[in-house]
Amino acid sequence: MSLTKYILPMLAATQLAFAAECGDTTVSSQSDADGIATCSKLKGDVTISKSYTGSLSLAGIETITGGLICEGGENVTDITATSLTSIGNAFNLEGLTRLTMLSFAQLNSVGSINWNALPKLQSLNFDAGVTDAGDVSIQNTGLTDLTGISLKTVGQFDIENNRDLKKININNLQNATDLINFAGNYDGLEIELPNLGTGTNMTFRNISSISVPSLEKLTGQLGFWGTDFQTFSAPNLTSTGDLVFNDNSQLSNISMPALTKVDGGFTIARNDKLRTIDLPKLKTVSGAIDFSGMFNTVDLADLEDVEGGFNLQSTDGTFNCTHFQSIRQTVIKGTFKCAAKTSDPTTSNGKSGTTSSTTSTSSSSTSSGAAIANGASMAVGGVAALFYALAQLV
Q1: What's the rounded Cα separation, in Å, for the pair 203 and 190?
Q2: What are its GO cellular component terms (predicted)?
Q3: β-strand 202-205 against 222-225: which pairing, if any?
């Protein structure tokens, strides 16, 4: 009896099984990608060669256990992976200066996202939405929004120098275990994080609005520099680390009615439209309080303990230091200064407290609370910024 009719199907099945067990792969052409189309699960990294040119389709692959990586592929124009649901490690794209489209309709899980210098990339076709990721860094792209990034939790979330990025709404995000940082994006960037409840550090530069109605606790810094919003409201925030409002030209109202503890230093400076500082439940500041500006009212009625120094200086002649002088011995552990109707209010380290001040830095006594550190990440250096500018001309 001939065994051919049994052996051939067995061989075919065996070949298919071996074909489906794919490891690390470098894709230099579409034929390379077609060669792994039978790999529903690819065990390793997929690296797109920097010499790749044109469109790339990664058909058939459902899972990549390693990373999806392309560095310096300046002639890659678009990448499509219709069946891919997860990338186990990093999704790294850097220097793809002609990339216009990412189409990953089923992708919902990645180890991390690191995209840099993708100036032609304006939108994402991530229909299922990426809900699970570790760290996310998106820098120097042409994206106008982050639709398709639908995270529930995130480690570091760093969004920098995306000059066309106008609006971000990550409705599902509830917790961040590392730094959330927005800097150098479109000047009118609007940010909505409606369900974010807890996090570590959050820093914001060059934004026009921020909504965090559910935010309750930060273990690290909350800071705002050079923003363009009029009001900051965090109605449910009870505690944070260092708290900084610096050089926000339009800020006229800070509303944190539930805030009881600042576990670090608290700085308000160079916010010239801010007239009233009202924190009715604030009890404890473990660092220094350092307020300078043009305000006429500071209400800290429940303040019980300031471990560091106290510096409060205002240009307004109606401001009254009497209450703070009365509590300096029992509440304030560090150095004390309170001054009204001063033409050049300064911060505790001698810097100008208003945008109209001419005071430069000068020496001052150091409080036991120490100075507040500026924790905003400015991760993209001059070389990367220059590369991005040149890429715009491609």
Answers
A1: 14
A2: cell surface; fungal-type cell wall; plasma membrane
A3: parallel
